[in-house]
Amino acid sequence: MDITRVLVVEDEKRIADFLGRGLESAGYAVTLAHDGTSALEAMHSLEHDLIVLDLNLPDMDGLKVLEKIRNRKVSPPVLILSARSNVDDRVKGLEAGADDYIGKPFAVVEFLARVKALLRRGAPLQDRLQVGDLTLDCIRRKVTRAGEYIELAPKEFSILEYLMRNRGRPLSRTMIVEHVWDMDYDGLTNIVDVYIRHLRSKIDDRFPVRLIHTVRGIGYVIDVPEKGAEQE
After folding, report:
1. Residues 11 and 106 in one domain
2. Domain range spanning residue 135?
């Protein structure tokens, strides 16, 4: 399963870092670019599932960057982020090929909601995930390992699905809580560790190869371990 990648093109470093942290906490891989030239270079070097584009860039107008994006054979959804928030500017951006437009200042919850909506529209999620001999059917909400059905509680299923959609990518406890419970992370709670123990008892403990691994100082990751690698 490929990680969902978002390119953020924003020349104000403070805002770019803020957006990057918000997107990463929601489970996305983020590339930051602070001008149009580096944005185009990032697009050519790596495919992205969504582009967040500021219009006020130091080296070229954001609409020019948008034009170059739309001239590519593969063109991801584009969310314009700009202080130019009057109706004429919005219309101009949408007519130039943007998929959505949000004006500054904005609420991060609205920003993330728009990101999710564009990603749903642009790239439907897989309905069947697999890691090794573990499979998860998102439609039937059914989990099997080595052909054996495993019954999971709703939150256990949601955590496992989130891990499997990000196979090979370490997810922090913060990211898991905010994605599964849709709430801010309280550093005093061990709710994620409790649920991971439940998951491990069901999908790992009875099988020779463990799939859920602890990443010290970060959180958890799911993947098939390399031969000879120590398992936690």
Report:
1. yes
2. 128-222
